[in-house]
Design a protein that fits this description.
Blueprint: E1 5-11, E2 15-17, E3 26-34, E4 43-48, E5 53-56, E6 65-67, E7 73-79, E8 88-93, E9 97-101, E10 127-130, E11 135-141, E12 150-155, E13 159-167, E14 177-186, E15 194-199, E16 202-209, E17 213-223, E18 229-233, E19 237-239, E20 253-257, E21 260-262, E22 268-270, E23 282-287, E24 291-296, E25 299-305, E26 310-315, E27 322-326, E28 330-334, E29 339-344, E30 351-360, E31 366-375, E32 381-384
InterPro entries: Integrin_alpha_N, KICSTOR_ITFG2
Organism: Hypsibius exemplaris
Keywords: Integrin
Length: about 425
């Protein structure tokens, strides 16, 4: 089976270190790029185990907003989870609390009496609710087909739960609603990460399992006799495409759903909503032993072996490529033609995320561009931005193995 080809290795040079104002510890699942204040420009959001939520705007190393005394933050995210046509930031703690924050462009924090807060950087939660503890990761997916995302949480006890915001207009409380549990699944092994995609317009959730395997959860949305949407899930399907290999069954594994793959005929196959061939649900699996496999169910479409410890696989914003991350500090961009670009960061990586981040263009306009965030030694976080990453499909190898030349025929006419 043909392996991937590394076309170019280059160093990332445009970066800055975030200034939290204090020593903090941020978990890999507690940081994300998202438009937190709904102004069309994305921010970087990070939560610490010390209980603080930080929001960084544009390319400022100093945080823009901060919330304190929340508890040990284990995962953060944002989306239209309250069906208000705008992003709402959610923060989950290991003790079993979920906080939500609603921000607006030019957000100004107010005291309870309506006066401007002394610390204009401080923000307060919109809602707070107790949920089961030991949550360590989350992903958004519209699993009930109503057009709004639900939150799926991965827990340390090998359980995944889904939550949905439900409005309650009959209450006298300021917050008109709460999160309710929709589903619960239990898995055989510890959960490495969660990833979501669409198949035939229906949400699919991939749950990584140790040893290079994963489990797929697929929703089934239908109308009942009263023309009301009903959501059920197919039985969980375990995929272990690399079972024939001799490997550690407890090895750390990460999965990414909805990747692209180009067949030998040159026809691109994508497991995305806009795909013309939605029957192929293609996903990528990487393991700590350095192996990458792009699979369709239990079939390995292509694979690649690196000499590094791989710690994560992520979607590339706005492009069909995906990102492969090694603990050594190497970041690989991979496309559907088995071509790879190797980017080198400044230090080894303990945590990573990719997304869109607000930047200032040469014309002075604020625009979104691709950015990486890395957690390095000592808990420091670096933002890599303004990356001019070329289109891999248009690139050719910088290095080629020289062709063997025939040995010269010795001159025997002397």
């Amino acid at each position: 089976m043909q392996s991937a080809e590394i076309l170019l290795t280059t160093q990332l040079t445009t970066w800055f270190e975030l200034d939290f104002g204090e020593a903090v510890t941020v978990l890999p699942s507690s940081m994300t790029f998202v438009d937190a204040d709904n102004d069309g420009i994305s921010e970087f959001v990070a939560g610490s185990v010390q209980g603080d939520l930080f929001i960084f705007k544009s390319h400022s190393a100093r945080y823009w907003k901060k919330a304190s005394d929340l508890g040990m933050i284990t995962t953060v995210g944002a989306g239209d989870i309250m069906q208000k046509k705008k992003n709402v930031v959610y923060v989950v703690t290991g003790e079993g609390s979920i906080y939500t924050f609603m921000l607006a462009p030019g957000h100004i924090s107010l005291e309870e009496d309506g006066t401007k807060a002394r610390d204009s950087r401080a923000i307060k939660p919109y809602s707070h609710q107790k949920i089961p503890p030991n949550i360590v990761m989350s992903v958004l997916a519209d699993i009930d087909g109503d057009g709004y995302p639900e939150i799926l949480f991965g827990m340390t006890d090998r359980v995944v739960r889904s939550f949905k915001w439900v409005e309650n207009t009959n209450t006298k409380e300021d917050v008109k609603g709460w999160f309710v549990t929709l589903n619960k699944w239990e898995f055989a092994g510890q959960i490495g990460n969660l990833s979501s995609s669409l198949s035939d317009g229906v949400a699919e959730i991939f749950v990584s399992q140790p040893g290079g395997s994963c489990c797929r959860l697929k929703a089934c949305v239908s109308l009942n006799t009263n023309s009301i949407l009903e959501t059920n899930f197919e039985p969980p399907v375990y995929h272990n495409p690399t079972a024939s290999r001799s490997r550690n069954p407890l090895m750390q594994t990460q999965v990414l759903a909805g990747v692209s793959f180009k067949e030998t005929s040159g026809r691109a196959v994508r497991s995305r909503q806009n795909s013309s061939d939605k029957s192929k649900n293609i996903y990528a699996v990487c393991s700590f032993d350095g192996s990458l496999s792009v699979c369709n169910e239990d079939t390995v479409l292509w694979e690649h072996q690196t000499s590094e410890h791989l710690i994560g696989v992520y979607p590339f914003p706005l492009r069909d490529e995906f990102i492969l991350v090694a603990g050594s500090g190497a970041v690989y961009i991979v496309n559907d033609e088995k071509k790879m670009l190797k980017l080198l960061t400044t230090e080894s990586i303990n945590g990573f995320t990719a997304g869109l981040f607000g930047t200032v263009s040469q014309q002075g306009d604020h625009v979104n561009s691709c950015a990486f965030a890395t957690i390095c030694s000592g808990g420091r976080i670096f933002i890599y931005h303004s990356m001019n990453i070329p289109n891999l499909s248009m690139m050719k190898s910088v290095w080629r193995r020289p062709k063997k030349q025939p040995l010269p025929v010795p001159n025997t006419s002397i």
